[in-house]
Amino acid sequence: MRRIHAGNALSAFGLGFTVPYLYVYVAQVRGLGAMTAGLVLTVFAVAALIVLPFAGRAIVRRGPRPVLLAALVTAALGSLSLGLADGSATVLLSAAALGAGQAVMQPALATMIVDCSPSQTRSRAFATQFFLQNLGLGVGGLIGGHLVDASRVSSFTLLFSLEAAVFLLLAALMSTVRIPHAPCVADAAATAGRSARSSWRQLLGNRAMVQLCVLGFVLFFACYGQFESGLSAFGVEAAGISPSTLGTALAANTLMIVVAQFAVLRFVERRRRSRVIASVGVIWAVAWGAAAYAGLGHGSQAMATAAFVSTYALFGLGEAMLSPTLAPLVADLAPDGMAGQYNSAFALVKQLALAVGPAVGGPLAASLPGPYVLTFLAFSLGITALALRLGRGLTVAQDHPWSARSRIVARGGAAAEPVAADA
Length: 423
Known about the structure:
By secondary structure, the chain is an all-alpha fold.
């Protein structure tokens, strides 16, 4: 598990190393223009949407480790070729390889965590994963920012080469991990053939999982999908926030996650998961209220700035509460041997929300700031309603595993792994 967590930190470090600078690199450093740079970001997202449905099936049939190693090698090749590319076609192909590889890493690593942790420690394991991911993103972005120089192509070539080296180092580290419950082809030939035909039908037949996917889409659409598009546009256009203050707000979000993650863990893991998610919707509604005050209120600029930074900090608090809640719930909803399929499906939902969110939020925030804030405040309250509805369809072991374990221990037995059941 320590090696898997180190892998999560390294993968996030590699992502933070280059992704913030892709637009500048393609449009300005390589001189390919804003349209090509926009296409690169689009290809990055589309490649992830294409490969994720197949990644889940591959994880089920082959186990998460071989899939992760293939994704790491693909991402390393994409990163290295992107640093050397000087034409539009090469840049787009390289971005597709890098985007596809990075998209597959997360469900593969999440499945490895599921296979290496019992339900008793799973919330803590995923909280640690989220903490290390944010730390890796922050450190990677900080180091990358000091290495790049828009006047020198060689600085970006070095950046992408170092990212490729990080992915290859991670591949070497992950090749030493032995997964205790990973399925193998020899033992699961029958289930592999069945999953190829009906795994998606089985997943869509799990009502609780479908409800969780709908809830997840709204969560990611209303929060992550707005960070660097709609909310930032609203801050600049309506609240008069400077670009440097946007950086401060993002730093406040990361700092809140780092500080609050383990402080809220003990509180979160003892309570019903559906109610934790519902409370996140309320917290985010307050965050959007703070954003409304920043952009539509009549206070001073200092008060508007403080309110806007508080918006990002409140989003971070909600994220810290979700990290030990959502991923373990996906794992507990998955039938035996299907964790990879379910993790990939949920990652696909997240990727869709991240693709749609900026496309909707950015133009709306720039042109209609008032309706923009009210719309996403309503989405946050919708999260609360959807979470409470989901809770009614979950078993006690799925929604409140702490209570289920306590009952088992009180009867004198060992805490058993909860059995996922279709709801």
